[in-house]
Amino acid sequence: MTATPQLVVALDLPEKDAALTLAARLRGIVPWVKAGMELFTLCGPSVLSALKDMGFHVFLDMKFYDIPNTVAQAVRSAARSGADLITLHTQGGQRMCEAAREAADSLRAAGQPAPLLFGVTVLTSFGPGEMPGITAEPSAFAQELAQGAARWGLDGIVCSAQEVARIKAVAPSLACLCPGIRPEGSAQDDQRRIMTPAKAILAGADYLVVGRPITRADDPTEAARRILSEMHIEKA
Ligand code: C5P
Fold first, then answer.
1. If you take atom 18 of ligand 1, which residue's CA is the nearest one?
2. Quick one: which atom of ligand 1 is closest to the CA of 121?
3. Could you confirm whether 34 is annotated as catalytic?
4. Nearest-angstrom CA–CA distance, 153 and 30
5. Ligand 1 atom with minimal separation from the 37 CA
């Protein structure tokens, strides 16, 4: 768990230059940025090093889901790329998550940096009844997956802010990283299990991940500042 909740801006942009230009505007205001499938698939590790050079903590959101050996090796690659925090699917199960844990631990034991490992539970875009083959409510299923993540040694989980309280009650060691954050009055987009920044902080979220409400704002810097002030944080 982080002492102070952190804002992470999702740089979901189709061009490296546009991502770095936006990052430059957020520098010194926001502590974390996220490169995910859209940006990283196009730009690769060079975008991560550029963001690190600008002073950001970097979250690589590729949501690994594969056989244990492949995920363990991907954790090693992510570490070499400079990622500070990465995601893998908790639905990859115990052996996959433990292989990721062992890879990160062995890097640390060798004195090398290793990313924090966060397990995706139920995507915040899923509403009730939308998960193929899953009859459980999203929040109940997220809690079950989070309990697995805690047993398998992950550092945290990705969940909706709506389920942070119930997850913290059963797995207090896990940091909760929450997408689906929407300031009052902003568009829901494709997200379903959403919460405002202020309510997410009250619920106990450790990291808030915000994309479009900032990246598509007329003034992204001002949008980020407003969210930080809702979180009661003035600057990075
Ligand atoms: O634009 P928006 O604020 O909805 O962006 C949310 C970000 O968080 C996106 O980059 C998305 O890939 C990511 N994310 C998510 N739900 C998860 C995990 C990651 O929305 N469970």
1. 123
2. 21
3. no
4. 28
5. 12
Q: In whole angstroms, what is the distance from residue 157 CA to residue 178 CA?
A: 9
Q: Which residues line ligand 1 (CB under 6 A)?
A: 10, 12, 36, 61, 120, 123-124, 158, 179-180, 189, 191, 209-213
The catalytically annotated residue of 16, 34, 52, 63 is 63
pTM of the model: 0.96
Distance of CA 91 to the CA centre of its chain: 16
Candidates 225, 139, 216, 219; CA nearest to 178 is: 139
pLDDT in tens, 101-152: 999 999 999 999 999 999 999 999 999 999 999 999 999 999 999 999 999 9
Question: How far apart are alpha carbons 3 and 226 in whole angstroms?
Answer: 21
Please name every residue paired with 158 in a beta bridge, in sequence order, or none if there are none: 120, 177
Handedness of CA 101, 76, 72, 205 (dihedral sign): positive
Name the residue of 60, 61, 62, 163 whose CB sits within 8 Å of the most ligand 1 atoms, as the mutation to test its pocket: 61
Q: What is the atom index within ligand 1 of the atom nearest the CA of 181?
A: 3
Q: What is the pLDDT of residues 175-189, one digit of tens each?
A: 999 999 999 999 999
Q: Summarize pLDDT for 76-97 with one digit per residue, the tens.
A: 999 999 999 999 999 999 999 9
Q: Which residues does residue 207 pair with via DSSP β-bridges, in sequence order?
A: 6, 177
What b/e readout covers 181-204, taking b as 16+ CB neighbours within 10 angstroms? Answer: bbbeebeeeebbbbbbbeebbebb
Instruction: Give the 3-state secondary structure of residue 35.
Output: strand
